[in-house]
């Protein structure tokens, strides 16, 4: 779960209110930890509607050859990205592959993952694009 | 899959092959609290305020570009029409303000800042007259400042005194920037029924009913529409309109997403999405080419006005379905210098000033980026502005004139600005005299449709 600034601020304010100004560091630390553990995901969704999903669409295409899927999925795994769905089509000598991945658990943000995948694309001489899923949701769903 | 394979590929094709991008995210900033009796204090307040709100504008927009994979071609700023909060200034003080705007724009890293403007559709204050008189020098001594003046509205008619004054300002601006193909005129727009939330410079300003600060977005996408039309093949016009609508719907949805995200990152309100199809000189990004794909041999053929009317109507219908925040100018732009298809049509002698004027009756936003001979008389330019204003006023729509009497140039010559401003062939203008009419002065009264109570 990604901790946003809003959540941190909310936890901080609640903790201060509960413990008062005389709280020791240890008391604060323990209170924050227990608050995080008991935090309800549904509450987060309701109170932080602007919290973006970590879902990203990876689109890739180019000349088909062995090892492309392996290289792409290996790089994604190394960057802590979870593959939710994968679809591929081969037309003659060309492949097109689309993945839905989740980068929530990744230690890297989207632009860093994009940089990593760009290196893979250059090595394999294929095209790889990563875009937050909202582009597709906004364009193709009402 | 949650998304169809084809849907994802369609979006990728739009952004990577068909040049779909967000033409501009424009931050509107109010300067109404920056007035002071001391011009130096005024300028400092203006500068500080633009920097305060705008310092992360470019950075945040770039982050959103990367996250969603859609380019934002321009990050710009518009401000309160300068004549309004600074009405006590004199001509030279207005020029000082223009230089301040120029510096602030440079320091936040944007190429244009708009709003060096006055709204004089019924009459003008002393300050407004001073600002208008200052426009030529202001544009000649800055790089990034854009100016616009509203000379007419459906409610008040056409202020012919202002029209003539603006024609003089245009001629003077052309002369003062003659060393750069009269580029100052490319940043100067004369409006009828100007809108308060236009995100497209050069004619943008942050209207007095707008909030303290706001983020407006202007989409684009002629290339996407062009490919959709070609792919539709031989269908009747009703079906073709449907194809255009469906395409515009999708890109409007994407445009609003981007605009809202940029606003969110800046911590400011989202304003409007302007759904205009705005071309660039790049190949495949042309309204002219769309009209040809619809079946015209060239722009300027009989049928051009009708084709453009249908295109514009489809754009509006799709935009309204896609968003509850449609605003600005929202239509198809037909600038000559910024559209390769239009440039070729003029060069081939197929597109005249008169046909362009007819086309402006059914599209946004008017006569745009048109180069005319440098020796065109002031009264003739005023006549062109009056005609264009009449189209706007009578039909209760926004029209504008951005016209370049290219100093020292004649029909067949070119003005060349590079980049998004493009290049334009110098077009022929009728030599018939309008001076008797223009020099009567006064105001053409508001039309019947102004009585809406």
Automatic annotation (TrEMBL), chain A:
Domain ACT positions: 57-131
Domain of life of the native organism: Bacteria
Protein name: UPF0237 protein MROS_0416
Pfam family membership, one: ACT_6
UniProt record similarity statement: Belongs to the UPF0237 family.
Organism: Melioribacter roseus (strain DSM 23840 / JCM 17771 / VKM B-2668 / P3M-2)
NCBIfam families: PRK00194.1 (NF001220)
Lineage: Bacteria, Pseudomonadati, Ignavibacteriota, Ignavibacteria, Ignavibacteriales
From TrEMBL, chain B:
A matching Pfam family: DUF711
Signal peptide positions on this chain: none
Coiled coil: none
Entries under HAMAP family matching the protein: UPF0210
Subunit and interaction comment: Homodimer.
Family per similarity comment: Belongs to the UPF0210 family.
Protein name (Swiss-Prot/TrEMBL): UPF0210 protein MROS_0415
Organism, as annotated: Melioribacter roseus (strain DSM 23840 / JCM 17771 / VKM B-2668 / P3M-2)
